[in-house]
Amino acid sequence: MDWTATRAAPGRLRRPPSPSRGEGSHAATPGKVLIIACGALAREINAIIEANALSHIALTCLPAIWHNRPEKIAPAVRALIRENRERYQRILVGYAECGTHGQLDKVCAEEGVERIAGPHCYAFYSGTEAFLARGDADMDAFYLTDFIARQFDSFVIEPLGLDRHPELRDAYFGNYRRLVYLAQSEDSDLDAKARDAAKRLGLAYEKRVTGYGDLTAFVTETAPAEPIATTRTVPAE
After folding, report:
1. Could you tell me if 116 and 166 lie in one domain?
2. 115 shares its domain with 9
3. Which domain holds residue 166?
4. Nearest to 143 by CA among 130, 152, 135
5. DSSP state of 39
6. Model confidence over 29-40: pLDDT tens digits?
7. Do residues 113 and 137 both lie within one domain?
8. Residues in the chain with pLDDT < 70?
9. 107 and 171 part of one domain
C-alpha cells in the first residue's frame, strides 16, 4: 500500500506504517514529510495534497472529537512525532493552538517541529491576520466549518446534551447572535445543513466562503517543492 496516498477518515486515527510494528522501512526517505493533524482537517489536507500532486506528504490524523478533550492532543502528537521521527525528513503539525493552553506549543518546541499558526481552525481558514483584525466584531458569532456542518449533531448537539435537554439551548447559546458558516467549499447541501443549525440554535445565519485559507500555504510551502520518487521492493520470482 502507498501510505502517502492514504485518506485519513475524519475523527478516526490513521497511522502511517510503524517500524515498531514491523511495518515499512526503518530508514527515513529524503524529502518525505509527515503531517500529524486533527481529523477535522483530513478532507481538506488530502484535497490540497492531491490538487498539488504532493506525493511526498503522508497524513495521519487524531480524532476530531478530541477538541472536546483538548488535554489529549499534545501527548498524542508527541507520541506520533517520536514514533515517526526516523522515517520522515520533516514532521509538521496540522493543529492550531486548539485550547491546549500552551501544551501543544511546548511539545512542538521540545520536539523541534512546526505547527500551523493561529489560535484555532476558524482563524486559519479565515486567514489568521484577517480574523484577528476583526477584533470584537465577531464576539457574538458561533462558527461552523464544513466539517462541523456535516457533523453538527455529533460534535455540538450531543456533546452538550441538547438532544436530551433542548431546554438548555439558550443557556449555552444565549450570548451569541449569529451562526457564521466559514465555508471551505461551495456545497448547497452543507449550506442547507448550516442554515438548519442556525435555526436550531435560534441564531441569525451568515455565510463566508473562506476556502482553505492559510492551510494551503502551510501544506504546500513548508514541504519540498518537488515530489520524491518512491521505490517498491518486488519479490523475486
Report:
1. no
2. yes
3. 128-209
4. 152
5. G
6. 678 999 999 999
7. no
8. 1-29, 222-237
9. no
Q: What is the pLDDT of residue 135?
A: 87
Output 9-12 pairs: Cβ under 8 A, ≥24 positions apart: 9/39, 9/42, 9/61, 10/39, 10/40, 10/42, 10/43, 10/61, 10/64, 10/147, 10/151, 11/39, 11/40, 11/63, 11/64, 11/65, 11/151, 12/39, 12/61, 12/63
For residue range 53-87, what is the model confidence (pLDDT) as tens digits?
A: 999 999 999 999 998 999 999 999 999 999 999 99
pTM score: 0.81
Task: Pull the grid cell for residue 36.
Answer: 500529524
Distance CA 120, CA 99 (A): 8
Please count the structural domains in the chain.
2
Cβ-Cβ contacts under 8 Å for 13 (sequence gap 6 or more) = 39, 60, 61, 62, 63
**pLDDT given at position 29:** 66
Same domain, 23 and 85: yes
